[in-house]
Amino acid sequence: MSDIPQICDYEGSNYRTDFWEGHGRDYEDQVERSVLRRWLPPKGKRVLEIGAGFGRLTNEFKGFQQVVVLDYSFSQLQYAREHYGDAGFVYVAADAYNLPFQVGVFDAATMIRVIHHFANVPLVLQGIRRTLAPRAMFILEYANKRNLKAMLRYALRQQDWNPYTLDPVEFVKLNFDFHPQYIEQALNQNGFHTQKRVPVSYLRLGLLKKTLPTSVLVALDSVLQKTGLLYSPSIFTLNQTDNSGTDQTALDDIFACPKTGAPLVRVGNLMVNEQAGVRYEIRDGIYIFKDLD
Ligand SMILES: C[S@@+](CC[C@H](N)C(=O)[O-])C[C@H]1O[C@@H](n2cnc3c(N)ncnc32)[C@H](O)[C@@H]1O
């Protein structure tokens, strides 16, 4: 456990009201949804939304029989649960580096606006791959270091770091931008085949957002997405797992101890494996695999 990297902890944060609501980000929100709507299948069995936060995008997964809404922050999940309820949704407070699931139980997963908080990308991708069935879908969004603004600032010598090198740049503690090639390699080396990559949010500029209606920005963005030119601040990737592993998407008991891998069963408000001597709490309808006060 000691070599698990640090977590960017949103516990108790006002992410929803400090960043989204009333902050002029309808354009970003809508273009992200438009990619999900295009790529997500109309129906599926079980999807894992990793780093779901307060559930901004969770209503996009309603085609799945079960949506597992995972975040490290218990308070973000409390808000999501109040909003969506329990029918078809399962809420899990856990660390994405240490996922509390059996192998191959999901036929899809997404990670949007989350991987930029991860210092060890291969480690988190490896864990996600484990939980996915063969030929499952994984939609990953990441912050692109080789974006137009960074390229311009670098050319004008207003920025020290080089947007063209493959190494991630940590511009603020636990906030990383990644080179498209770095992410593609990391995906590939951890059992994913990248099928599509689209540039998103090219028009994320205060002046444009003030002057043009959101619908126009969204329409322009969809044209820019088709260019495939990966110089935007955000990039969406559509990936499929390889053929290896076991398909356990029919399992009802999906949980496993994140430390030992022992399968867990529910006993009252606990998830337990008596033989392995492990137990985890379910509080306020949220499965908890982290230490809470
Ligand atoms: C920028 S928010 C994005 C939330 C949501 N995906 C969205 O787009 O609105 C990042 C989220 O990642 C979660 N997160 C960060 N590190 C995590 C980790 N190691 N395990 C699980 N969640 C994590 C945070 O708690 C936070 O809710």
Record the SSE blueprint:
Elements: H1 15-20, H2 26-39, E1 44-50, E2 64-71, H3 74-84, E3 89-93, E4 106-111, H4 121-131, E5 132-143, H5 148-155, E6 169-172, E7 175-177, H6 180-189, E8 192-200, H7 206-211, H8 214-227, E9 234-241, E10 265-267, E11 270-273, E12 278-283, E13 286-288
Parallel strand pairs: 1-2, 1-4, 2-3, 3-13, 4-5
Antiparallel strand pairs: 5-9, 6-7, 8-9, 10-11, 11-12, 12-13
Helix pairs in contact: 2-8
Bound molecules: S-adenosylmethionine (SAM).
Verbal overview:
This protein is α/β, with parallel strands linked by helices and 293 residues long. The protein has one domain (15-288): Rossmann fold, CATH 3.40.50. The protein contains 8 helices and 13 strands. The protein has helices spanning 15-20, 26-39, 74-84, 121-131, 148-155, 180-189, 206-211, 214-227, and strands at 44-50, 64-71, 89-93, 106-111, 132-143, 169-172, 175-177, 192-200, 234-241, 265-267, 270-273, 278-283, 286-288. Strands 8-9-5-4-1-2-3-13-12-11-10 form an 11-stranded mixed sheet, with helices on both faces. The protein has a two-stranded antiparallel ribbon with strand order 6-7. A hairpin with a 2-residue loop joins strand 6 (169-172) and strand 7. Helix 2 (26-39) packs across helix 8. The chain is globular. The structure holds S-adenosylmethionine (SAM). The site of S-adenosylmethionine has 20 residues, from loops.
